[in-house]
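Reading is simple: each integer encodes one residue's backbone shape. The lines below illustrate:
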Amino acid sequence: MKPINVGLIGIGTVGGGTWTVLNRNAEEITRRAGRPIRITVVADKNVELAKQVTGGACKVTDDAFAVVNDLEVDIVVELIGGYGVAKEVVMQSIANGKHVVTANKALLAVHGTEIFTAAQQKGVMVAFEAAVAGGIPIIKALREGLSANRIEWAAGIINGTTNFILSEMRDKGLSFDTVLKEAQRLGYAEADPTFDIEGVDAAHKATLIAAIAFGIPVQFDKAYVEGITKLEASDIKYAEQLGYRIKLLGIAKRRSAGIELRVHPTLIPAKRLLANVEGAMNAVLVKGDAVGATLYYGKGAGAEPTASSVIADLVDVTRLATADPEHRVPHLAFQPDAMSNLPILPMSEIETGYYLRLRVEDKPGVLADVTRILADQQISIDAMLQREPEEGEGETDIIILTHVCKESAADAAIAKIEGLSAQKGKVKRIRLEELQ
């Protein structure tokens, strides 16, 4: 059967891995797809690198749009990232009637609605398994494997850089800044790690997970995003003493009034599987009403793990290229005319437990004042830890874990605690999820 011709734009880490795996496993992939899948043209600004990787086995150009406008190309694989040229490449590919495979979570999280609408109107597919959690097939699991379920929530460690940093801080008791430098030395963190450590990368991915889990439009601008830069080694130690570990989680949760979409450091009970995902690994826990909790674990980045997802998309598109567009799996799992208008809830409306660290004067009556403030906001205490002050030290740490309450109530309580004369500085607040 006639091969499917692929134009690859970007042959860096993931592009190089895609070329390698596609050629190494060509026979297996052809047997699965029903016809050969071959890369016929590669575009990259570094032409010499492209020629070195491909070994002269296909055309090479420095012009992405030469690939997009190539009449022989059936599928365009976009691996350059970002919102600028990448968006032009994707939109022009769709306009030219070509299917698109992309690993670009930022592009889809911000412009996904426009891109998917254009693809639907043109009758082409946009596949993006590699955009979330690297080699873990979480998109396919949510979109197809769990399609019988009403998804209740999903919570994921979906950024390997931050998980490596938190794992090292916990294991070695080091500060955030020290571990970040080590992560950069080892290549886990970029020279500019802002998107990772501030939670933006995880929020892009959580936005896509929420859209597929609940059938809502992609709405990155409504996600709550908080990174790990303000975490202290002492909080990781206190959490451990209370039986919890701190992870940066992307959380999408269905509530009767709307959807919670948030990324932030989170205490998780140490006995949960998700709490034991260490190093640069990723994991996503999904709760469906019929199946219960299911866990998806693996490498969230890297050349060949991410290439695995890119090529899985190429196989899917190849199988379905001749299918009636109306009978393909919808981009966001739900039929386009059946999308939900459930709103993304503001943070004041979310419900979770809290870890509160107070630095207070070591004197009688302080704890009574704090517990009264919490009680006034209908917040009940689940556990408490008080550090014994050093000899001659006039201040101490009080750690409080609360039961589930509204964020607005926690905000009000924290403001009043910070108004106490015995409270020194700001209250440290970290959200807590039991993930039952």
User: Anything to note?
Assistant: The first strand starts at residue 4 and ends at 9. The chain has a mean pLDDT of 96. DSSP finds 15 helices and 17 strands in the chain. Residues 34 and 354 are 52 Å apart (CA to CA).
